[in-house]
Specification:
single chain; alpha+beta; 12% strand
């Protein structure tokens, strides 16, 4: 894994973000996307919503749903 240190103000913006973060260079070119792990409350909400109709999802499906991914 490559480790990149960021300035404190950038780190604060990342921590405060509620969704995916697009990292761009000085010219506006996308470098990558950062997604934070789901919080415990987001996991619980997804579990509750996912099992509402009686169907149970796997842990991987719940995490994917919380992170905005599609379940196929």
């Amino acid at each position: 894994m490559t480790r990149v240190a960021v300035a404190d103000d950038v780190a604060a913006k990342i921590r405060e973000s509620e969704g995916p973060i697009e990292l761009v260079d000085a010219r506006g070119h996308t470098i990558g996307i950062v997604r934070r792990p789901p919080t415990e409350s987001e996991i619980q909400r997804a579990r509750s919503r996912a099992s509402r109709d009686g169907k149970r999802l796997t842990w991987a499906q719940v995490v994917s749903k919380v992170q905005g991914g599609a379940i196929g």
